Amino acid sequence: MPAGSWQSVTYGKGQFVALSSTNADPNEMVSTNGQSWTATSGPAGPWTALSFGDGRFEAVSSAGQIDTSTNGTQWTQVWNHSNYDFTSVAYGNGHFVATDSALGAVAISTNGVKWGRLFPAPNTVAKWGAVVYGIGEFVVLDNSSSGYIATSLYGSVWTVHQLSPAHEIDGATFGCGTFVGVGQSSTSTANFISSTSGTTWTTAAAPIDATSHWSAVGYGAHRFVAVDASGNIAWSSTSANCSAAIPTSPRQVSGNINNGKVWTYMHPPSSAGGAPVNSYRVNISNGTIIKQCSAPVYFEPNCIISGLEDHHVYWVTAQSHNRFGYSAPTDPEFVIPVASSAFDAVTSGPVVSGGEPVVVQVTGIRANGEGIYPLSPITVHVGATIAICHASPFGECLLTLSNPPVGSDSIYATYSGFGRSYQSPTSNVTVTT
Question: Which residues contact 423 (CB under 8 A, 6 or more apart)?
Answer without folding.
Answer: 343, 412, 413, 414
